[in-house]
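Feature request disguised as a bug: please show the residue count (210) next to Outer membrane beta-barrel protein in the output. Example input:
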Amino acid sequence: MKRLINIIAIIFLVQGLAHAQKRKIEYGFRIGGGLAIQSIDNNNILSNNSIRAFNANIVVSFPILKYYYLRTSLGIANKGTVITEDALTTTNKIMYYELPVNIMRKYSIPTLGKIIAGVGGYFAMGDRGTLTYETPNSSTSNYVSFGNDNDFLKYDAGINLITGLELNNHLTFNLGYDLGLVNIASQPLKDSGYKSIYNRQFSITLGLSF
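Example output, currently without the count:
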């Protein structure tokens, strides 16, 4: 019985790969914005609010099985948050180079296009950012320094979810969510009461596919 199940699975896999070979690799780009926030564990924080984020990336989708694609992209994503502690408000904005990889499923809609849904992961590398400190009487800004002995860890990674619509005229509309799984708090932040900092981001993008 086990051998029969394996044979059936191999047949379906071969059929799926044969069908995938008839489809072309798809390319495209996306640009848009959204909201970013950081999940922070610190009992001294009075409030934690989102910032507006910008996203742009180049997308490549490889057909793998019938209706399924392996999608990867390379682009930039802004993440951060606004923290209030007593009379001090700190806004951090970090720009990452981000590489998501998703397994996509496409559902055809006659005369309109396709609905897409996917899940995967992302890897990100911090490039630059700013830290703005505001009190009732002053405002100062510094550039973010990366490293365990500085402001934040340089690398981030997590789960990436995406859904959207691909129209027959090649326009695409996408909704995405990044759930960071790496604690990017540096040692000085941990020493000052920030036990953990995790990136979160919701994005809406418009693009073209070819």
